[in-house]
Amino acid sequence: MSILIYAESAEGKFKKTAFELASYAKKIAGEAGTTVTALTINAADTSALGNYGVDKVLTVQNDKLKSFNAKAYADVIKQAAQKEGAKIVLFSATTDSLYTAPLVAVALEAGYASNVVALPESLSPFRVKRNAFSNKAFNITEINTDIKVLALAKNSYGLVESASSPSTEDFAPSLNDNDFTVKVESTEKVTGKVTIADAEVVVSGGRGLKGPENWGMLEDLAQALGAATACSKPVSDLGWRPHSEHVGQTGKPVASNLYVAVGISGAIQHIAGINSSKVKVVINSDPDAPFFKVADYGVVGDAFEIVPKLTEKIKEFKANNS
Fold first, then answer.
1. Is residue 125 reached through a cis peptide bond, with omega within 30 degrees of 0 on the bond before it?
2. Do the beta carbons of residue 72 and residue 65 sit within 8 Å?
3. Whether residue 209 has pLDDT greater than 90
4. Taking the domain 2-180, which CATH number applies?
5. How far apart are CA 187 and CA 185, in angstroms?
6. Contact 37, 58 (CB under 8 A)
């Protein structure tokens, strides 16, 4: 019995979540006395997985899989799990994996737990801790099926290095034409910036910035912090920022180590989407803004005065400590 992880990559390079998943799997494997197999799809170099305890790598190289297709990817992962006799199949909580994991669970007749935030509390019976109610509570889920499928919440476990020398095996799953009924016509990607999905730090702006012409100061702060930029739903609806930057319950979920909200009042849908972030800093001129109730640090004042000064201080600190 092995543990199978889907090590997600983009343009041939592994996402940080793949290494977090490998770290998590290695710990479970140590307790269960088993091994970790990683499945990669069109990854250019798999050697980095050996830094996080992976014992075996199954590599799939297929031009048909260059564009993400949930149905086709699920079929590939199912075949890999069956080949390896995996009893635990692990995914990251990325957008693509959240589409794929339920399909794999159905195909394997497996119990499925999403939003997992910790190592299993016990392996027999199999119990895991999960986020619930838009990250406002936790529950303990018991899975009684022979095969278990889990999706690990981002930044819930972290990276734990464990050097190994994994064997590598080319894997050529059978692909069904029925898996490709959905065609990708084009893909638009932001280049040269930190993406929200991979960001450790996110700087987000709301209507308090008054217009798209004022976003420069937010981008300066993000650059100083090495952060991704984001926005609230009203901002993207007004066309001030692209919808790809909209974070919240109806946008992209964020689980960064630091989330800085500038001029965002804190609607419940927005807070629900960023509540998994570890440290939340709020800058707002309204002392009664709802966001302050969930903030770890709050600054009441004019963002147009505070943000440039904060950026300047961060740059000074980095210059003196580089």
1. yes
2. yes
3. yes
4. 3.40.50.620
5. 7
6. yes
Tell the CATH topology of 201-320: Rossmann fold (3.40.50)
pLDDT band (50, 70, 90) for residue 123:
very high
Identity of the amino acid at 195 = T
Angle at which helix 95-108 crosses helix 70-84, to 10 degrees, equals: 50
39: its two tokens: 């499945």
Residue 213 and residue 170: Cα distance in Å, rounded?
Answer: 51
Assess whether the region 2-180 and the region 201-320 belong to the same CATH fold. Answer: yes
pLDDT at 188: 66
Q: How many CB atoms lie within 10 A of CB 249?
A: 17
Q: Which ranges constitute the DSSP H helices of the chain?
A: 16-32, 70-84, 95-108, 215-225, 233-237, 268-274, 303-320
Quick check: pTM over 0.90? no
Q: Where are the domains of the chain?
A: 2-180, 201-320
How far the first Cα of the chain sits from its last, in Å, is 47
CA pseudo-torsion sign 136, 140, 143, 147: positive
Would you state the structure tokens that stand for residue 223, as one six-digit string? 């650059």
Q: Which residue, among 201, 200, 232, has the nearest Cα to 215 in the 3D structure?
A: 232
DSSP 245-267: GBBSTTSB----SEEEEES----
Residues 6+ apart with CB under 8 A from 47: none
- Tell me which residue of 86, 81, 148 sits closest to 111, measured CA to CA: 148
Residue corresponding to tokens 């890999």:
80
Q: Are 246 and 229 in contact (CB under 8 A)?
A: no
Name the token pair of 117. 């935030």
Question: Is the predicted pLDDT of residue 26 greater than 90, yes or no?
Answer: yes
Mean pLDDT of 200-212: 95
Say if residue 86's pLDDT is above 80: yes
